[in-house]
Amino acid sequence: MTLGELERLVVELGQKAYQAKYIFSFVHAKNAAAVSDITPLSKAFRETLGARGYFISQLKTLDCLADPDGSRKYLFELADGERVEAVLLRDEQRLTLCVSTQVGCAMGCAFCATGRIQLRRSLTAGEIADEVNQAEQDAGKINNVVYMGMGEPFENYDAVLKSIRILNHASGKNIGIRHITISTCGVAPAIVRLADEDVRPRLAISLNAPSDPLRRRIMPIARKYPLAELLKAVHTYQARTQQRVTFEYVLIDKLNDSTAHAHLLVKLLRGIPCNVNLIEHNPYPGCELAGSSRDRIARFASVLTDAGVETVTRFRLGRQIQAACGQLQAGYGRARS
To answer: Which of the following is catalytic: 98, 105, 185, 325?
Structure first.
C-alpha cells in the first residue's frame, strides 16, 4: 500500500490518519517483519489489523551468489512459489539494484535469456518494492534502482509506477526519482503515458539496431512499434518532460556492431537529447549469438563519440554467476536449455 492507501485504511478502522505514517515507515524504512513490530501503534490496533488479515509480505531469499567483481545475484521466491532474480551492482560507494517486474517475459528478444521463459505472471507493487527491502538487509542502503531485470516493466505499468512511488517516498526508502530508471524494449504508448505521471524516473530504451529490418530480427516488439513510431513517442515524451533519454544497444558480433551500423545509429538519433549505453552481449545456454569483440566495440563507440553522441560502454558485471545483462532466468530455463 502507498501512504495514501494506508491513511484511508486507518481512518476506516477508526484511527487518526497520521498512524499510517508509522506503518509506512516501519515497513519501508525499518524493514519491519510483522505488524506486531510497529510499536508506535497501540497493541489493540495492531491486533485489529492482524484480525482483519493485514500482514507485512516478504519475499523469501532462496539463494545469493557473489561474483568476484563485487556484484551479487539474489533468487527470490514469491508467495505462490514463483521465482525472480535481482542483481546488486557495486560502483565505488554506490549500490544499484536491478529489479524484476515479471516472472518470465513475453517480449522474446533474441539476446535475452528471460525471453525464453514463458511469461508466468507480473509482480505486484509490493513484491517489486520488497526486492529492495530484502537486498538492503543483506547489502546495506540501496542508492539506485533500475527496472532492468526479468520482464518488460511497461507490460506491468501500474504496479511498476506504484512501486516507484513507494520507493521514492521520503517516509520510506527515500530513493531519489533521478536515481530510479525504467528500461523498456520500446512500448511506445507507455512512453507517452509516462510523460504525464506525477513521478518521472529516468527512461532507458533498448534499441539494439538502427533499422527496422534488423531490429525485427532480434526484437519482436519492433513489428508492433517500428522505429518511426517509437521515436515519435520519444519526441512527445521529451517535449512534455524536457528530459534526456538513454538508448541501450546490445552489441552482437557481426550482426549489429559494424561501423556502418554505428553511422546509421548516429543519423537515427540526430536531434534527440540522449546518451547511448553500449552493452556487451552476454551468452546464455541455448543462445547462438556471440558478443562483439572489444576491438569492434571500441570502433563502434568511436563513431558515436566522434559524432558528438555521449556514449558509455558497459562491460560485463556478474557474468560468472549468470547475473549479467540478459542472463536472468531464475532457474526456469535450465531444464529447457
So the answer is: 325
